[in-house]
Amino acid sequence: MPEDKLTPFGDAVAGSLGALFANTVVFPLDVIKTRLQVQNRALGKLNPDQHYTNALDAFLKILRSEGISGLYAGIGAGLFGTVAQNFAYFYWWSWIRNWYFARRPGPTSTAVELSLGAAAGAMSQIFTLPIAVVATRQQTGVKGEHKDSLSIIRQIIKEEGYQGLWKGLRASLVLCSNPAITYGTFERLKAAWLGRKSGPGPNGKLGAGEIFVIGAIAKTLATVVTYPYILAKVRLQWKPPAHAHTSLSDKDRERVSYKSSLDVLKKVLESDGIVGWYKGMPAQITKAVLCQAILFVSKEEVTQYTLLLFRLLAARQANALKA
């Protein structure tokens, strides 16, 4: 293995460890933004304590009614899904880039960067989407209806079939443009910034602060562009609380039943206007920007430790063979 470069597997390990750390830090924001994304007026009238006006209101109400554990609902599935998705994404991103550059070395266009990122994102979504469905159900479960991951999986299969585990797949594939925009923009901004610096940091690398700012800008742009589909994906994966079926009118039940991403956007537009497409976006952006910026920073650092770990393992194996 080259001294300064990880294999696709090593790159995936570094990316996953960085993502695990970042998502653990911001997980309460993930719960808050998910609940904001699925709420609507009809359900809010049934249970005012679970209808939130903004992220701060959501934080206070969740803390008051469910305690600190409510802010970490679904953390097991959420973090497992984060590791799995980022491992898959970074593995495929690294593998696809290496495959492409082996055949076409040299500078690439922004379009190529986006295409490579989208392809890696699509592969990771196909393999990890069921985990996201389970995490969404756990995060949005009302008090008294929380279930463990296996129980949710069994319930989904029983009520919706195995295809229910892949709810929101089409929206997820559309959202592959999100990491593509993020990483494509990051690489471009990074190259442009290094090109303008008269004296780059050690070994021509960006400092942690520079990586944080560039990562935040890249993720903000990607989130704003794709947010309506982020909301649609979450609503497709969400399941209304059990009491909604008996307490809501036929018309309101129809409003919280979705067939596709376009159906979600249409019904949200009818009930809340275009601003409804952006419910929870401030919390989403805050969470996404913090998470992605931390990810970029930690991945750069973790990459160095991962390289060191792999070299130590390789040296140990070599010594064992000699013995």
Describe this structure in words.
The protein is mainly alpha-helical and 323 residues long. It has 13 helices and no strands. The longest helix is centred in the C-terminal third of the chain and has 42 residues. The model has no long low-confidence stretch (mean pLDDT 82).
Strand content: under 5%
Q: In total, how many beta strands?
A: 0
- Distance N to C terminus: 22 Å
Largest sheet: none
Strand pairing plus helix content: what structural class? mainly alpha
Low-pLDDT sequence parts: none
Work out the radius of gyration.
21 Å
User: Helix segment count?
Assistant: 13
Apparent shape: globular
Order of helices and strands: HHHHHHHHHHHHH
Percent of residues in helical segments?
over 70%
Give the overall average pLDDT. 82
Kindly list the characteristics that best describe this protein:
mainly alpha; 323 residues; single chain
Brief synopsis:
The mean pLDDT is 82. With 323 residues, this protein is mainly alpha-helical. It is built from 13 helices and no strands.
Can you lay out the helices and strands and say which pair or pack?
Layout: H1 8-38, H2 41-46, H3 55-66, H4 75-103, H5 110-140, H6 149-160, H7 169-174, H8 177-196, H9 208-237, H10 244-247, H11 250-255, H12 261-272, H13 281-322
Helix pairs in contact: 1-4, 1-13, 4-5, 5-8, 8-9, 9-12, 9-13
